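Question (not urgent): is this output format expected?
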Amino acid sequence: MIKLFSGQELPLEMHKVRIVQKLNLPNIDERQKAITDAGNNTFLLKNKDVFLDMLTDSGSNAMSDRQQSAMFIADDSYAGSETFYRLENALQKFFGMKYFLPTHQGRACENIISETFVKDGDFVPMNYHFTTTRAHIAKRGGTVLELFKDSSLEIKSDDLFKGNMDLDKLEKLAAEKADKIAFVRMEAGTNLIGGQPFSLQNLKDVKKICEKYNLMLVLDASLLADNLYFIKTREEACKNMELNEIVLKMAELCDIIYFSARKLGCARGGGICSNNEDLIERMKEFIPLFEGFLTYGGMSVREMEAIAVGLEETLDFDMISQGPMFIKYMADRLIERNIPVITPAGGLGCHLDAMSFCSHIPQNEYPAGALAAALYITGGIRGMERGTLSEERDENGIETLSSMELLRLALPRRVFTLSQVMFAVDRIDWLFQNRELIGGLKFTKEPKILRFFFGMLEPTSDWQSKLVNKFKADFGDSL
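Got this back:
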């Protein structure tokens, strides 16, 4: 952040824009038709109909000039590519781990790890679940157990590390069921509860319990860049440590690290790393089966070159700070307008509390999904529902109500300008003032697995037409 002469603080972009992509802002009638055609599912919107794409930071981060130039030297050999060895070397330096298995993205890592280590009846404790992680574990008959602290689900909080695992809960579970625990999983930046980080000290304490009960510790490092920033800036013992020193300390504590390079590295791919040769050998056979040969693993070699450079750039404080600073700036502007958001601001994006924003909508009518549709209609802004819509029904068909109802507005790294952020704040502000117009949603097409990706919904009333009419009354011909 930089302080202006006026006293105002702003996040300062430590980069300049040299390649641009034209955006389109459809008018509100076009936006209402687009969300209707998409079944009120922001995943099913066509990008040409989206003005600000805040759906995700996965694969949508801006590459640097160094990453773009690195892509030209890619070796596209099917086997034994020099590109693979450059990426392997970059990962060895980054994590300090000897072995690397390439995959096409993070959920592919989850598939392979679950296939290798999860058996029917096993448990996988974690600081919080991620949708695809839980689906892969459940597919093998395993059960995810979330061992988060009480403060993790508080909307307004001063807890700087809401992503920490509850150590007492882990100790109790391990004492009772150690023989049924496939592994312990820590997620660097708990995606579904606001991108909240864990501390290095918490990871150390989790490792001690794992060692006591002979449990394997697995780290999902997809959102490591944000978590690294928060450890560096919020954890007193780490403030004088170099970023690469913190990463190596984290890696020393883990048996396996996996990541989506669509987030970590700002390209498209993924991988599994370990210092344990036996664990690698057990997973290795699944790479050719599910992904591709061992020296590309389903990735484009050009993307692999970009990842190698992106990992090096992740150790640049100016790079990893830009996302969290923009997110905090956006959250602070919303708080000034009394709009409910997750605090403290985490990584990945700004998270609106749909439970409060749309307190009149029952959870079985998907308030976060309804808010996502309403915000798209209001401003052409595409966010992602992170609530009950992202859950699945139980074996009896009963709706599983989410612990939180969030609308995540992702801020991909080095993509949006401050004026675009302020446009989003303005449209959210207007929507909040007219929130009583937002109604619920109901399924018209409901997949059984990961329904939030391609399920279709419709409004429970004509609330969207009323919202459009109010927008026109307030803004006239303005988009």
